[in-house]
Design brief:
The protein has 231 residues and is of the alpha/beta class. It has helices at residues 20-31, 46-55, 68-79, 96-103, 117-129, 146-157, 162-172, 177-184, 188-202, 207-217, 222-225, and strands at 11-16, 36-42, 59-63, 86-91, 109-112, 141-143.
């Protein structure tokens, strides 16, 4: 691992994760690197937002679970801090639709929790060192399993939104519109509208055709279809 020179200041990081043991382990590993200074740690929610406003960190490394809307609200409030900290998301989820949803929240990086500490440090350096030169502040760095990255990119090439991809994946698993609506906490009419928007984008007219097209193009995998309910 590298270290900061005498004239450089370490990256000031706020770590927000609901799993205390994991958070403290990551803190110790990150602080062993001279480029990093943990200025605060907290669970998700109001405490994390308040600390971001108080400490004005360079980077917020934040856990995101399946409560996407709640995370979106927290990220928006953190990004409203005067210095606009860079936001790196840590998550165990690798569903392509979920990844794309998080990438659309103004975050700077998405790191799967299976990544190594060195990979996380590389993301920290890349998001920060590239901040001054970046022409597009929405550019993001993604550190996820290769198959997920390929699916995200393939789906984007077809013009599918994150929500459309997410709904198509659940449709491929055999869920009805009502079941998908219940799982995603949206209305059945919204599910129907997303499917109606997605089908012409990929040149199909039915769920069966959509699943077949998704499998052939690589943005739906057999492993996605057979995923268990608790995944």
């Amino acid at each position: 691992m590298g270290s900061s020179s005498e004239t450089e200041q370490p990256f000031r990081i706020l770590l927000a994760d609901n799993h205390t043991m994991f958070r403290h382990a990551i803190m110790g590993l990150l602080q062993a690197d001279g480029d990093v200074k943990i200025v605060g740690d907290a669970g998700r929610g109001e405490e994390a937002v308040a600390l971001a406003e108080k400490l004005d960190p360079d980077i917020v490394i934040m856990q995101v679970d399946n409560e996407v809307e709640k995370a979106k609200d927290e990220i928006e409030r953190i990004l409203a801090v005067s210095s606009r900290p860079r936001v790196i998301v840590l998550s165990l989820y690798d569903d392509p639709g979920f990844v794309r949803s998080v990438l659309g929240m103004g975050t700077n990086a998405y790191v799967h929790k299976s990544s190594s500490v060195d990979e996380l440090l590389n993301v920290v350096r890349s998001t920060t060192l590239g901040a001054d030169d970046a022409e597009d502040d929405t550019d993001v760095i993604v550190s996820v399993p290769e198959r997920v990255l390929e699916q995200v990119q393939n789906a984007a090439d077809h013009g599918l939104s994150a929500r459309e991809l997410e709904i198509l994946l659940w449709a491929a698993r055999g869920y009805s519109n009502r079941q998908i609506a219940t799982r995603l906490s949206i209305s059945e009419a919204t599910v129907k509208r997303h499917l109606a928007n997605a089908f012409p984008k990929i040149g199909v007219r039915s769920r069966y055709e959509a699943v077949r097209k998704g499998l052939s193009e690589g943005w739906i995998l057999e492993a996605d279809i057979t995923v268990s309910e608790g995944a």
